[in-house]
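hey can u run this one w/ phosphoenolpyruvate bound, need the C-alpha cells asap thx
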Amino acid sequence: MEPRNETEREYIGIAASPGIAHGPVSLLRQREITVPSYRIRPDRMSEEIKRFENSLIATRKQIQEIRDEVQQSLGESEARIFDAHLLVLEDQALIGETISEMESANQNVEAAVWAVGNRYIDAFGQIDDEYLRDRASDIRDVLRRLLSNLTGQSLGDGEGPGTKHVVVAHEIAPSDSACIDKDHLLGLATDIGGKTGHTVIVARSMNIPAVVGLGDISKKVSPGDVILIDGYEGRVVVNPSDATLFRYGKLKDEHKSFEERMIASSRGVSQTKDGHKIRLMANIESENEARSAIEIGADGVGLFRTEYLFLNERRLPTEEEQYQAYRKTLEILGDLPVIIRTLDLGGDKMATIPGLAMHAESNPFLGYRAIRYCLDSIELFNTQLRAILRASAHGNARMMYPMISGAAELAQANDCLERAKEELREEGLAFDEDIQVGSMIEIPSAAIACDTLVSGSSFFSIGSNDLIQYLMAVDRLNDRVAHLYEPTHPAVIRTLDMIVKAGQCGGVDVSICGETAGDPIMVPLLIGLGIESLSMSPGLLPNAKYVVQNMELQEAKDLAAMALSEPDGSVILGKLVEFYDERTASLH
Ligand code: PEP
Ligand code: MG
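ok here u go:
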C-alpha cells in the first residue's frame, strides 16, 4: 500500500450510480491480525481465562448488534447469516479446548484460541461437504473478531456500525452486500466492475452514489482517508481540499435542486404531451423496494428479481417462505401488476447454498445460469413455480423466465409450469389460472427468432443488460471493455426494433427492464421504437416520467427513425442528449 498521503488525489472510473458523497473511507478488505504468543504463570491463569470469557461476551454483543442492524436494514434472511457466528461463540467444545490448551501449555489466550480455531478451520475445510466447509469460514470470521477484541487491533473493515462512510473495495459481489452496513453507507468505489453489475444496480436503487472500474483504488487509500465520490462523472477524489469540497458542494446542491424540481414537476400520469400513455414500472428485489415503487408512483413492478431470496442464505428458501415473500409484494402493489422473474442465479449472482451445485466457471455469463440452471434442477424450479402460482391468488401477478434462448427451452419451462399448476389443482390450492407468462429477450438467439417465442409467451420483456453484453461481446462487469458497451450502437437499436415488430406482429406486448430503460436519455428512443412499458430502479422513475410528459409521440418516432438510419452510435447518442438537454433546460 502507498504511504499515507494527505494531498488531494483524483482518480477516474466509470460513473455507476449518480450522486455525490463524501466521508471517511471504510475498506472492505480483510487485514491480517498479529497474534501475540507468550507464557502465562499458573497463578495468573484464572485471570487469563476471565479475559477469554470477557472477550466472548464482548464479541457476542458486537455480532448481535450487527445482526440487529442488518435485520433492520436488509431483513431477517440476511441477518440470519450472523446466527451461525453466534453459534460458534457458544460452541462448548471450542471453548473447552481453548481453555485446556491455555492451561496445558501455560499459554496466553490469543495464541490458544488461534491454535484451536485453526485446527477446527482445517478440519472443516477438508470435509467433502459444502455446508460443513462453510462452517470453516464462520469460524474464521468469528476468530478474527475475537482476536481483534483481545488485541485491540482493527479488523480493517473501517469504522463499522455507527459512522457514515464510503466503502472502498476491490470488488463487491452481490453476496458481500450483507457485510455492508447500509444505514451508514454514503457511497461505493471499486477497483473493477461495470455499470450493470448487480451490486451497482442495488446501489442505484438505494440512491447510493457509486464509481466503479477505478483500477486499484483499494490499494491507494487507507482507513482514515477522506474520499469524495462523484457518481455523475465517475470521479473519485481522495483527501479533497477545501476548494474541491466547496466546488462539489455547489454541484451537489445544483443536482439536488434539479432533481427536486424534476420530482415536483413529474407528478401525475406518465403520458406524452399528446396523451399517449407510457407505463413506467419499477425493478425491485425486496418488499422495501416494493414500497418505494408505490411511493414514487410506479405503474407496477416490471421486474421482481427473486435471486436475493437465495443469496446470503445457508439453505434453500422453502416454498412457504417464497410464497410469503411474493405474496407480501403483491399485496403491497394491490391491483398493480407485478412481474415475478423466475430464478436467475449464475453470472455475477453466485449462491453458495449447500447442494445448489453452483460452481465457479470460466465464462459464467455464458454458462450455467438462469433458466438453464432451473431446467436442470427441476425440484428447485418446481418449488419456485408453485410459490409464484400460489401467490398469484393474492394480487395481479405475472411471471417471466430469464435467459430464454429459443422455443424448445420455452416449451420445456412452460411444461414445468403446467405440471406445477396440475399439482396445485390436485391439492386444491388457489392460483390465477390465467396468469400471464412472459419470456425475457436477452440472448441474441431469442431476439433473432423471437417470432418463434410468440406462441408460448404472453409478453416479451427485453433484458437490455444481457442483450447488449451478448450482442456486443462485452462482459457487463469488465471495466476495460466498458467503453464498448454501447446501448446506441446501430446493432442494438435494430435488434430492439426487430423484437418490437415481432411482438406487434404476434400480438404480444413488448416491455424493457434492463438499465437502458431507466436512462432518461434513452427513454424517447425506446418509446419511438414502440416500447410502451419501461421498468427501472424506482429512483430513476421521476426523471423518465418528466421526459415522457415533455415530449410528443411523433418526436420520439422521429428520433427512432433517425437512430435506425444513422450508422454511428455516438452520433445517435449525441442527438438523444441534445433532445434531453433541450427538454430539461427549464429545470436548471
Ligand atoms: C437484464 O439483463 O437486462 C436484466 C434485467 O436482468 P439482469 O440484470 O438481472 O441480468
Ligand atoms: Mg439479464
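The chain has a mean pLDDT of 89. anyway lmk if its weird
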